[in-house]
Specification:
The protein is an alpha+beta fold. It contains 5 helices and 5 strands. The chain has a single domain, classed as Beta-Lactamase, CATH 3.30.450. The chain is 30% helix and 35% strand. The longest helix has 12 residues. The termini are far apart. It binds flavin mononucleotide.
C-alpha cells in the first residue's frame, strides 16, 4: 500500500514520533475481520518494553499481553475500533523479559477516503501511579 507508506514516511509524523515522551505504535489492517500487524514503533516503545522495532514489526500488539491482561478490555478495544471510536484504557502488559507493568493507552483508527489505513496508539507505563 503506497498510500500507507507515504503517511508513515512523512517528515511531520516522524518528527512527532521522535519527540513524543510516550510510546507510539502504528498497525495496519491485514483483513476485514479486525486483523492488524505492527508497521511502526518509536524509541519510546523500545524504552518501555525492551523490544527493538525489528522484533515487533509484522507482529500483533498481542505480544505485550499475558495472563493478567484484561480480556474484557481488549474486547472493548476491538469493538471501539470497529465502530470508528477512539479507545482509552489501562491493563497489565508484559515486557520482553516477561516482567509485568501497568499500561495506559489510547488507540484510534486513521481513515482516508472512507477506509481505515492505520490504527495509531500512544502508550505509557503507569506502574505505581
Ligand atoms: C494500534 C494498536 C495498539 C495496541 N496496543 C496494545 C497494547 O499496547 N497493549 C495491549 O494489551 N493491547 C494493545 N492493542 C490491542 C491488541 O492488538 C489486541 O487486543 C490483540 O491484538 C488481540 O486482539 P484479538 O483478540 O482481536 O486478536 C493494540 C491495538 C492496536 C490496534
Amino acid at each position: 500500500m503506497n498510500d500507507s507508506r507515504e503517511l508513515l514516511d512523512s517528515p511531520l509524523f516522524k518528527a512527532l514520533a521522535d519527540l513524543s515522551f510516550d510510546s507510539v505504535m502504528v498497525t495496519e489492517p491485514t483483513d476485514d475481520q479486525g486483523g492488524h500487524t505492527v508497521v511502526f514503533v518509536n524509541q519510546g516503545f523500545t524504552d518501555m518494553t525492551g523490544y527493538a522495532a525489528e522484533e515487533v514489526l509484522g507482529q500483533t500488539p498481542g505480544i505485550l499481553q499475558g495472563p493478567k491482561t484484561d480480556k474484557a478490555l481488549t474486547d472493548r478495544l476491538a469493538e471501539d475500533l470497529r465502530q470508528g471510536r477512539t479507545f482509552h484504557g489501562s491493563t497489565v502488559n508484559y515486557r520482553k523479559d516477561g516482567s509485568p507493568f501497568d499500561i495506559e493507552w489510547k488507540v484510534t483508527p486513521v481513515m482516508r477516503d472512507g477506509r481505515v489505513t492505520h490504527y495509531l496508539a500512544v502508550q505509557r507505563d503507569i506502574t505505581g501511579r
